[in-house]
């Protein structure tokens, strides 16, 4: 067999192989039409007609959200390129707040945000970092003296009747293993895997 026939056969296999390959899109069509499919139109509607539902959706009122957006906007803003439209700072912050408030996975969140899970996996940590960096000095102050710690403990004693408490996480339970603590005081009626737990 001469070289021309060999090249023709090899070329034929290459063409057949290329035709069998499924063409893969750079992005799913509905991600590219984010304006049409995302929750942003719902948010615009809630801002004008249902502020209570907007508060429930964002876990904060519109004014607090706008202030928060002003803080983080310079750090999370991205530029639109000729290849694709950038996800706005507003969309980034809303997606992050929904992720933090609901605990939904990025695979689930992609359906309401119309943002790919890969991009959400980058957006959420970046936005959390921006929130921390902009709020840490004013709102996330770490106590610097013994008196600061005692003031926090006294606040918990006054408001919750918890002594020696220095912090709390809403809705969390910590399983206790030390059985020397009075079981009746710390038992939660709901089913919990530990024999008793301490609500914070």
Describe this structure in words.
With 200 residues, the protein is mainly alpha-helical. The protein folds into two domains: 29-135, no CATH class; 146-199, no CATH class. The chain has eleven helices and two strands; from the N terminus they run ααααααααααβαβ. The chain has a two-stranded antiparallel ribbon. The chain is elongated, with a radius of gyration of 27 Å. The termini are far apart. This is DDE Tnp4 domain-containing protein. It comes from Acanthoscelides obtectus.
Indicate how many domains the architecture comprises: 2
The assigned structural class equals mainly alpha
User: What is the succession of H and E elements?
Assistant: HHHHHHHHHHEHE
Which stretches are poorly predicted, pLDDT < 50 over at least 5 residues?
188-197
The average pLDDT score comes to 75
Q: Can you give the helix content as a percent range? A: 55-70%
How far apart are the first and last residues' alpha carbons, in Å? 82 Å
Order of strands across the biggest sheet?
1-2
What's the total count of β strands?
A: 2
How many helices? The count is: 11
Q: Hey, roughly how much beta strand do the residues contain?
A: under 5%
Radius of gyration: 27 Å
**Largest beta-sheet characterization:** 2 strands, antiparallel
Tell me the overall shape: elongated
Protein name: DDE Tnp4 domain-containing protein
Organism: Acanthoscelides obtectus (Bean weevil)
């Amino acid at each position: 067999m001469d070289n021309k026939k060999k090249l023709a056969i090899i070329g034929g296999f290459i063409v057949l192989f290329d035709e069998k390959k499924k063409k893969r899109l750079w992005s799913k069509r509905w991600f590219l039409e984010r304006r049409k499919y995302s929750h942003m139109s719902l948010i615009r509607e809630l801002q004008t007609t249902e502020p209570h539902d907007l508060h429930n959706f964002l876990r904060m009122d519109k004014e607090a959200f706008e202030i928060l957006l002003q803080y983080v906007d310079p750090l999370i803003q991205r530029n639109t390129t000729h290849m694709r439209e950038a996800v706005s700072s507003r969309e980034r912050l809303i997606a992050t707040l929904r992720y933090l408030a609901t605990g939904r996975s990025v695979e689930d969140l992609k359906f309401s945000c119309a943002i790919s899970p890969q991009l959400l996996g980058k957006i959420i940590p970046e936005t959390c970092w921006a929130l921390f960096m902009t709020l840490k000095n004013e709102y996330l102050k770490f106590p610097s003296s013994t008196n600061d710690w005692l003031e926090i403990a006294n606040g918990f004693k006054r408001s919750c009747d918890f002594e020696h408490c220095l912090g709390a996480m809403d809705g969390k339970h910590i399983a206790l293993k030390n059985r020397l603590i009075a079981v009746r005081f710390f038992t939660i009626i709901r089913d919990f895997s530990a024999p008793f737990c301490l609500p914070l």
